[in-house]
Design brief:
Strands 1, 2, 3, 4, 5, 6, 7, 8, 9 and 10 form a 10-stranded parallel beta sheet that branches. The chain is 38% helix and 14% strand. The protein contains 11 helices and 10 strands. Helix 1 crosses helix 8, helix 1 crosses helix 9 and helix 3 runs parallel beside helix 4. It has one domain: TIM Barrel (Alpha-Beta Barrel), CATH 3.20.20.70. It has 330 residues and is an alpha/beta fold. Bound molecules: S-adenosylmethionine (SAM), 6-(5-methyl-2-OXO-imidazolidin-4-yl)-hexanoic acid and iron/sulfur cluster. Iron/sulfur cluster binds next to loops.
């Protein structure tokens, strides 16, 4: 099956709005045609530099300008990352994602340290992912040369809605970084958040931007907002599970070969609700007791869920290393 890259808002909206069970059925059917649907990729997150971020992302507990309970922490040591990677790997994770509360990468000693972290985790035969804010083409290349597998850079919402959520950078800057990541032949991880107060049209428009990229992102995280005290979005109501499932199912249908990650928000979901997300095409999660700064389900509970649902963790480098250019993606 070839992937389609000229979606319209109307087409995606029609998919999103179809009767719930029809939508889940269609997504599940496509999922079974394209992937080993029982295989779920486990990623583990680690915050390598926490809090004190100059940006004003309205959802984020790490923005310096909001008064949240997050403790600011300077760059951690390479050894701490290696230890976290080892315990994640022992627990079945195939990917480690390192997050930094930066607006953008600077060519300084902290970046040199990230490069060392990437090399160390790559040598453990785990897929390494970073999310460090904006990147130049040269910085993306340096990460690729160190063995980085994926770069996460979320669009969060539609271009139109972006200014309501973030004023310290533009949608275009976001897209430019993703282009730089592609140029360096890294795989792209890019998705968004629902529950920010966006409209359904914003969700549809965000999926259209992702699905119309010349190459679909290899992974698309769908986060439910984790409302955090002190941020402007602290009092947002919880995202209805129906919206989460619709969003996952629509992402699965418009980007059939992409890994769709059921990301933030699982701590508030029952096993049954998560099962519906897997049925609708989610095939990745973040596991480990913490996301970056907020709680995530217990690892033991996740393993019990895998057992109950007959899911198996996906092995690392299933599609080869990006630098080898033997990807299954169209
Ligand atoms: N600073 C970098 C950046 O913004 O690209 C990397 C780290 S940032 C914390 C990574 C992503 O986490 C954001 O793009 C956003 O999608 C997600 N995120 C942050 N706070 C969240 C929250 N409270 N609920 C859900 N997702 C959140
Ligand atoms: C993504 O899409 N979600 C993750 C990861 N990529 C970096 C981050 C979720 C953060 C949730 C809030 C927190 O724990 O600070
Ligand atoms: Fe900073 Fe990233 Fe949080 Fe925005 S989402 S405030 S850029 S850490």
């Amino acid at each position: 099956m070839t992937t389609k890259h000229n979606w319209t808002n109307e087409e995606i909206s029609a998919i999103y709005h179809q009767p719930f069970l029809d939508l889940v059925y269609e997504a599940a059917t496509i999922h079974r045609e394209n992937k080993d649907y029982a295989e779920v990729q486990i990623s583990s997150l680690i915050s390598i530099k926490t809090g004190g971020c100059p940006e004003d992302c309205a959802y984020c507990p790490q923005a310096a300008r909001y008064h949240t309970d997050v403790d600011v922490h300077a760059m951690i040591k390479v050894e701490e990352v290696v230890a976290a990677a080892q315990s994640a790997k022992d627990g079945g994770a195939s990917r480690l994602c390192m997050g930094a509360a930066w607006r953008e990468v600077r060519d300084n000693r902290d970046f040199d340290k990230v490069i060392d972290m990437v090399k160390a985790v790559n040598a453990m035969d785990m897929e390494v992912c970073c999310t460090l804010g904006m990147l130049t083409a040269d910085q993306a290349q340096r990460l690729a040369d160190a063995g980085l597998y994926a770069y996460n850079h979320n669009l969060d919402t539609s271009e139109e809605d972006y200014k309501r959520i973030i004023t310290t950078r533009t949608y275009d800057e976001r897209l430019k970084t993703i282009e730089n990541v592609r140029k360096a032949k890294l795989t792209v991880c890019s998705g968004g958040i629902i529950g920010l107060g966006e409209t359904v049209n914003d969700r549809v428009a965000m999926l259209r931007v992702l699905a119309n990229m010349p190459k679909h992102p290899e992974s698309v995280p769908i986060n439910a907002l984790v409302p955090v005290k002190g941020t402007p979005l602290a009092n947002q109501p919880r995202v209805p599970i129906w919206d989460m499932v619709r969003m996952i199912a629509t992402a699965r249908i418009v980007m059939p070969k992409t890994v769709v990650r059921l990301s933030a928000g699982r701590n508030e979901m029952s096993t049954l609700e998560q099962a519906l997300c897997f049925m609708a095409g989610a095939n990745s999660i973040f596991a480990g007791d913490k996301l970056l700064t907020t709680p995530n389900p217990d690892f033991k509970d996740d393993m019990a869920m895998f057992e109950l649902l007959g899911l198996t963790p996906r092995k690392a480098f299933k599609n080869g290393r990006p630098q080898e250019e033997k990807e299954a993606m169209a």
